[in-house]
Amino acid sequence: MPKIVTFGEVLLRLSTPNFQKIEQATSFNATFGGTEMNVGASLVKFGFEAAHVTAFPNNLMGQKAKAFLRFLGVDDSHVVLEGDRVGVFFLETGAVMRASQIVYDRADSAFANINPEHFDWEKILEGADWFHWCGITPAISEGAAKACLDAVKTAKKLGITVSSDIYYRSNLWKYGKTPQEILPELASYSDIILASRKNIEEIFGLQVTVEKGKFVEACKMLMEAYPTVKKVIDSDRIQVSASHNQYAAKMWNGEELLETGYQDITHIVDRIGTGDAFLGGFIYGQVILKDDLKSLQFGTAAAALKHTIEGDQNLVTVPEVEAVMSGDKSGRLRR
Amino acid sequence: MPKIVTFGEVLLRLSTPNFQKIEQATSFNATFGGTEMNVGASLVKFGFEAAHVTAFPNNLMGQKAKAFLRFLGVDDSHVVLEGDRVGVFFLETGAVMRASQIVYDRADSAFANINPEHFDWEKILEGADWFHWCGITPAISEGAAKACLDAVKTAKKLGITVSSDIYYRSNLWKYGKTPQEILPELASYSDIILASRKNIEEIFGLQVTVEKGKFVEACKMLMEAYPTVKKVIDSDRIQVSASHNQYAAKMWNGEELLETGYQDITHIVDRIGTGDAFLGGFIYGQVILKDDLKSLQFGTAAAALKHTIEGDQNLVTVPEVEAVMSGDKSGRLRR
Amino acid sequence: MPKIVTFGEVLLRLSTPNFQKIEQATSFNATFGGTEMNVGASLVKFGFEAAHVTAFPNNLMGQKAKAFLRFLGVDDSHVVLEGDRVGVFFLETGAVMRASQIVYDRADSAFANINPEHFDWEKILEGADWFHWCGITPAISEGAAKACLDAVKTAKKLGITVSSDIYYRSNLWKYGKTPQEILPELASYSDIILASRKNIEEIFGLQVTVEKGKFVEACKMLMEAYPTVKKVIDSDRIQVSASHNQYAAKMWNGEELLETGYQDITHIVDRIGTGDAFLGGFIYGQVILKDDLKSLQFGTAAAALKHTIEGDQNLVTVPEVEAVMSGDKSGRLRR
Amino acid sequence: MPKIVTFGEVLLRLSTPNFQKIEQATSFNATFGGTEMNVGASLVKFGFEAAHVTAFPNNLMGQKAKAFLRFLGVDDSHVVLEGDRVGVFFLETGAVMRASQIVYDRADSAFANINPEHFDWEKILEGADWFHWCGITPAISEGAAKACLDAVKTAKKLGITVSSDIYYRSNLWKYGKTPQEILPELASYSDIILASRKNIEEIFGLQVTVEKGKFVEACKMLMEAYPTVKKVIDSDRIQVSASHNQYAAKMWNGEELLETGYQDITHIVDRIGTGDAFLGGFIYGQVILKDDLKSLQFGTAAAALKHTIEGDQNLVTVPEVEAVMSGDKSGRLRR
Amino acid sequence: MPKIVTFGEVLLRLSTPNFQKIEQATSFNATFGGTEMNVGASLVKFGFEAAHVTAFPNNLMGQKAKAFLRFLGVDDSHVVLEGDRVGVFFLETGAVMRASQIVYDRADSAFANINPEHFDWEKILEGADWFHWCGITPAISEGAAKACLDAVKTAKKLGITVSSDIYYRSNLWKYGKTPQEILPELASYSDIILASRKNIEEIFGLQVTVEKGKFVEACKMLMEAYPTVKKVIDSDRIQVSASHNQYAAKMWNGEELLETGYQDITHIVDRIGTGDAFLGGFIYGQVILKDDLKSLQFGTAAAALKHTIEGDQNLVTVPEVEAVMSGDKSGRLRR
Amino acid sequence: MPKIVTFGEVLLRLSTPNFQKIEQATSFNATFGGTEMNVGASLVKFGFEAAHVTAFPNNLMGQKAKAFLRFLGVDDSHVVLEGDRVGVFFLETGAVMRASQIVYDRADSAFANINPEHFDWEKILEGADWFHWCGITPAISEGAAKACLDAVKTAKKLGITVSSDIYYRSNLWKYGKTPQEILPELASYSDIILASRKNIEEIFGLQVTVEKGKFVEACKMLMEAYPTVKKVIDSDRIQVSASHNQYAAKMWNGEELLETGYQDITHIVDRIGTGDAFLGGFIYGQVILKDDLKSLQFGTAAAALKHTIEGDQNLVTVPEVEAVMSGDKSGRLRR
Q1: pLDDT for C223-238, tens place per residue?
Q2: Distance between terminal CA atoms of chain A?
Q3: How many CB pairs under 8 A join D and E?
Q4: Residue C312 falls within a domain, yes or no?
Q5: Could you tell me if A70 lies within 8 Å of chain F, comparing CB atoms?
Q6: For residue F250, is it left (φ>0), alpha (ψ between -120 and 50) or beta?
Q7: In CATH, what number is assigned to the domain containing residue D66?
Q8: Which domain holds residue A104?
Q9: CB contact, 8 Å: B84 with chain D?
Q10: Is the pTM of this model over 0.90?
Q11: Which chain F residues are Cβ-neighbours of E276 within 8 angstroms?
């Protein structure tokens, strides 16, 4: 069994049932989500081992979060129990032209206050094949950024493949550093980067000058600057409405531009975590299918399926993804 | 803050969950609805003050109804506590080609038995900018019709804008009067009337004779007969199915025919109250945007959004409507 | 009131709420389903009398199943109370390209172990106009097959119309007999058969040789071999996705091929039991409308409506079906 | 199987979940209740046949009520479908010292407006062993009182045992008659009367003058005045709190005063319908056990068990009652 | 109508349904609670006007909290919309010997960061008869303490009665001040203080030396030190178990020690907010009944009733309290 | 961390919500239970490692069961995925004198059909400190009995403490063996046996002849016959009602009879699994507290707490048990 290790915050997700507005809700559905953990959870369903590294307070809510990781089959033995609170997000699920809205309440979480000294990455990463992190993590606090850097350095040293989801929300990054100061060094230890052209330009200070083929141009410049990076991937979402999205992905692997067709998701159940589902599928493709185009296709099929599942994690198995990947989108009843 | 006063019945709404047939339901979702109150509730979310005038019995159900008004931010201080029961409607929510069905159980409600003497309209309307009523109200009972007439007369006297939703259900009107006997006088105190050409012809005894431009012709005749009426508006719903509607609106403002495009609502959550949501948006447009076309556009965007919200009331805010009005129907997740 | 008698297993249906994966569910919605009983239940809503013949254990679960039959208006007085368990199926409801999945747990149910001696078919069928069975029943056990044969023979003797849903799942049939050994004799007592061309070929050992008009050719061969069979019907489902199906039907009545247009079901609520709903509608058409094409049209309209209702049974009434059959698919709110 | 026929109104029961106050509830649990129907439903669980005679409107709510009767195993074939509405009661479930509260909304129900001409009692009562009615029925309307009188007269003529629950709520009786004008004649056709001494005095104009043995004295006077009456029974509830009641019963059978001990119900789930459960158990005792004291004991054991079941009806079986009756109140888990 | 103004934090309350442990819960019931606001909400049900002063972030959660205040009938017009988050507490409801547990997550809430300059107390308190605060408020932050001091000074100046719930949790008070530095000055503006002897000793540095009558002695010393204080009250809870409490109260009013008997709450539904319910009832007694003993009795009856209601607020009315106060604890069904 | 290994069947538990009768339920709460697994789950909460050995079918239901084990923190890596079904039990939760009822549907489960060859006990038990099994396991099938014997033999060989819950249900044991043929050999490898005197007599063919001290006498005879057995324990439940139990335990440890007082559980939430909770607590006492009386006391406190928790497993932690054990049964709110 291949093994992935992921690192990042896990938030309590409190969502309104039945498309209710937050104002109407008299109860919230409660689960947990976290972009990196979601990737690992996907891979567990695909037959991988996964361990997630994070921090929770040592109280009833922290124990609940740990139990959720175990439920997903994600190894919780490297979770540090310290700090005061689990970060929270409230989700109001939209429909048609009404957008879903998230209210974050994550400041001062246990993860934000982690002490990078508490992680023995050599031990944590022992036996792992893959390490994955996301740009939200170093945005949260200096400690998280430091721990992330320690992790990628160690992974590199141990010969573990590193994938980086270079995504940043400008409204995080409140501890005095900019993405431009932090992300490039982290990226320099990466094998695979998920980033849009815009992200590449803004974060790495690169400027695309061509008129056509901008994404490829950006990827080339990035790979030149950071020779460890072997592949750059990006997903593309067409938002017809909150209930109807289309999803595709592409990759520059240093040699050619690979692109998938669009998956058409006409009746969305839950859109949160679909990007993570893509990455889970993509990593499966890299490790098991060992083919770049198939990796993208497996990823987009997985992402499409995630739109039909409540919660942050993709709970489908390989045969379900393969069916969609092979073009069977009929949803025919299986008995 | 502009202020609107509305007058009309509020019913207990008991709807089946998850598209259940009434026969299947072992519980009902319970909320309240009333066409005029819904208009006021919309406007509260848009920053208006709103007061609703109605009657409830002074029992646990009446108190519940009052608390619901307050929850919506609607002033309940002019609610009369007398009478025996809150009217009820049972809602079986349909899907695709299966129609939603409503079973009304509203006879002899507290509102139907109101005594028009109990309303001091001068005091109630003090400080108001707008008064709104609907043709259902005078259909319910002689007392309700009388109170409604008192209200519009007083509003007119105080210089308050009066909007009238001239909509009537032929199966109401059981107290011995016809719509033709009652509605024209009420309409004569109106500034703005919501009515279809068919309604205009049937209620006011006017007969359109042109082949083209029938709506405009009807409006002109109406305005000639009732010179206080300055604008006639009408909405247009294309019912693709119970799950998919399209919604547009038009206005004759005495000078030109204004028409919006169609909002396409492809995955309806709850269709009840969408006409009221249109009116709420329209009134916002009249008072705040002060532009007739924008009023219609704001109204149709608001109506479209209401289709995605459970319950009778539109709970969206101005920025949500503005996004849709400006053409952004992507429902893109807001963080 | 016309009367139908049906015979077959009734299973406890445990489905996940809100499109949950089985792994996520902390509760299951509980109802009962059974293909033949579903047909009878449809017809009760259309004004028929219906009795269902089956077996349940004499325990709390068997009593619950009986009460459910009564709730549907299906006569439970011929239910045998013996055996150990009610068969179960777990339903994970899919969406878009994610298929619904059923986990059957029906082995050794009370029905599978029925003793054919326990049914006095002369008495059971007294006063009935129609008898219906399905190919799943004789697949379950030798006893069930024997009882089914007794039933159709008696029905034939009493001049009762027999309809047979010749549908078989190859993964049943575990008691030592093949469909080919059992189904033809059963079919030989049928007036109307529901079967695809493929089923006809596989079960009856007939081989269509024409290039075009294969279904008609198969029907002709079948009718030649089994002269009691007067009509062969088949439904046709286009599976756009798990959320969107299209449904049509056709019939060879010995003289002409009749075909309906497609019903387009764009937002599926529950797809289980839709074929049974078709049959219920079709039988209504045969008995009441006495017109083959209208029977198919009434059946497909009924089947379409069933897709919008949770549970195995179609709970719509004749006016609801007639509206759809007449082309009104607007789902316009009925007050 | 012995057969009971009951006559009376059936109301939609809308209760708040989890001890919520009505003001808090965002949903109501929905079931149906009616004192006479509850008696019949109890007896179905004890192996009787039962038919209930009432009226429902011919709409979705009336159909729902009929289906509920069938679910209970109560024959609904004598239900008249006419009138406008199903009566409703809202139930706020109390606890400890907080009383449960009921808001009735039953005026002008289908039952209140029944036409006594619509009931062919000779046919309805054919084959019945027992007829039961309650004092609420003749309180509702002149028509209901008339139909009730027709029923008891016919029952008497046919030699059917008649039991009468002489219970009246003074706040009903709004149609111009007093209980004193109506109930005595109805009682005169009864074999068994359930009434307190106070009821006997108030309704029949009898006045107990002894200091001790008042109940017996009242019974004697009643039986002298109405010689058809053979037994008078009464229940006795000690209300420790809304969560804790004690329940006993007594009978004067013309010869001796029989009294049961108190059943102690320490954790009440639902107190509504417990008196009806007593009567169901009592009638079982009269018909099957044929012993007056055992009838009272079976009745009180049944009533005690009903306090532990949600809804208006007692759903326990004979063995469950017998266990309690025999003194086993341990509630020991049955596997 | 008398009017009360309250000041303090309002927290989102997320509780597990059906006695679940937090680890088990897949949803949380969502409501709001705050000790001072709860007092005001009680009084609204008793016919008072109430306004609550607090701060919420101007986001969907803050708007939800405001709507909840309005639902309760509490004036939300003095709520300041600023800051980042609504404080949260998670409630795991215990039973029998298993304690309920609360996980607080309230650091850095909008209320904790309030700016005392933002409150114009002269205006807020205009027309008020009573002002109430609790010792938690000044424990939260310097700003909250300052605002609280401004409030009581202004109230004193305006002749408004001030009640102070001198209760402190030692694990709050993290901003550098001790209760001993802050609470005495606040108390000095109070008319009525709720405090135990232990609190009086610890907070005010007073030391009781008598063996008997310690509470009275402590009260006397307190009143001597703070002559504005006219009455000191304390409640007394006997915790038989998490499901069974007994509740009493006492007062030293400068002249005599008044004590109530114990209310026995044998089947607790929700124990949170019962102390606030006592205070609400007590204040009602002071203002309306104008009798000290009756105030305590009304308060304990109200507190007892609150134990039977889910959520933080007492939703009972005066007649319900009066019944319990007069000794009727039967919980007899009210129709 | 000490480590326990347990072996036995895990059943899907489908229970009715809110004390509903099975007949009423329209949904079931779904969780899993199994007596041995429950013991391990308790110990996880007390800080142990636990692994459970069982068999599930390799389908969605088997995967769900595995995920539930992980959620509990129980190692699922020795679960064999083979066989056809997960056994089921339906639970109707009683109250007061109404007994809870269980309908088992466990025949032919994956566990019943396990192949003892599939377990490598040397490997499974590596590093374990304790092995626990229950008498239900060898009752299910010959394979289960064989695997159980292999397990205890290996445990004995490896010096692992073996505890045996010698409890048998006579209505299991359908595969041709009697408890008397199987259980004694299994018991002979045990260190600790949980059994009543009656069980000892019936299973081991021992006959107590003394009048007093029967339990001790039985234990002495058992230990003489099976010298490996060092301690015999038994629990004692007084069933006041389904809502109120009392629970105590005793032990003969070869030297003295130790007995605890009774825990009084006055408001039971869920009684299932409380015996397993006792054993979990007892084993904690043996391993950690290393004191026989304290083991019994910790066990009974744990069992008492389990009665307040929904589901089969005890989810309390050591401090919660210690509080009850030390006599604090107040259930005082913890903040």
Answers
A1: 999 999 999 999 999 9
A2: 29
A3: 89
A4: yes
A5: yes
A6: beta
A7: 3.40.1190.20
A8: 3-324
A9: yes
A10: yes
A11: none
